[in-house]
Fold:
Amino acid sequence: MSQSSSALQSVLLAGGGTAGHISPLLATADALRRRHPDVRITVLGSHGGLEETLVPERGYDLRLIDKAAFPRRPNAAAVRFPQKFLGARRDAAALVQEVAADAVVGFGGYVSPPAFLAARKLRVPIVVHEGNALPGLATKLGSRFSPYVATAFSVTKLPHAQAIGMPLRREITRLDRDALRPEAVERFGLNPDLPTVLVTGGSSGAVRVNEPVAASAAAFRDAGVQVLHVTGVGKEVEVPPGEPVYIVLPYADRMDLAYAAADLVVTRSGGNMVCETSSVGLPAVFVPLPVGNGEQRLNAADVVNAGGALLVDNDDFTPDYIRSEVIPLAADPERLARMAEAARAQGHGDADERLVDLIEQAVSDGVSRH
Ligand SMILES: CC(=O)N[C@H]1[C@@H](OP(=O)(O)OP(=O)(O)OC[C@H]2O[C@@H](n3ccc(=O)[nH]c3=O)[C@H](O)[C@@H]2O)O[C@H](CO)[C@@H](O)[C@@H]1O
Structure:
């Protein structure tokens, strides 16, 4: 089967999990919709993931299948896995046929392996995007079936990988921080004349990041630095009132405004946080999540090596570190400006468009290239 890109009529996007896992999928859906206004876009997710709310909110059709998590140790769930996985593959194949998908694009997570296997069986072109420096099982599988493999980071080792960056939402890639700053300062109740540190643990927050920052409130105030602390829902911190302000928010619906207000970001190094701070040209202090396969440390490696960010281990992220490294940096506009420039040079604002290019190429080549 060979089609031209103008014949793109239906695309199935597979992925899900946290907000960070769904974000590149939604940015890709938006870019597909801009270029092909009539294309049918269907998102395949699994029950219990944040896709259940985030995908319909953005106006895309969502289909859910049961999670079939690959067993990492022999237990009762491992015994049930083959049956669950076969069921997921059958459901994914039925959906690929129902929507007559021209391509299946997988972003990782539980739903991508059944979607990749269904597409392979039905001879539908597969496109893979890996948003972490170390690839997960799903994208490793997908890259065995397809030459159309894109990654957010240049260090990622997958067959056929092309580093295109992370598809980011347009509010981020088109963000003019200077223009939006007055609105951001007013919205969060900040002082327009003081440096601002934005603190976030990623989409779910991180207690281990929150606690030492909250414990350093007095040191921030003494240095004339204000803090916009996005803690994660249910992870709010108590900070006594005082000047300069220390704003505590459970969640930022408008990260574009939060970035516009900030001069420095302290955050976990999830794939999106790294790519977003680079894209908007903000220096960062990354505190990688020390679990999983260590991907968060590697996610930050390029921008840290380029001089756009600092990296500190979870165990070393203490009030002492904040007093000796973070606060002096936040109060040093020249150093922040140099780091901001180095960070911006690492950003890829067009990854959404480049992934759509790759989807078009896969559809136009057909499965004969697989
Ligand atoms: C614990 C966990 O599983 N972490 C993973 C998860 O992180 P997580 O879901 O935290 O995702 P990221 O750190 O990559 O990105 C966070 C996303 O949430 C947005 N945001 C954040 C806070 C807020 O208040 N409002 C808001 O909108 C940010 O703009 C960004 O788009 O997915 C990442 C991308 O695959 C992985 O690298 C992380 O290892």
User: Anything to note?
Assistant: The chain is about 45% helix and 15% strand.
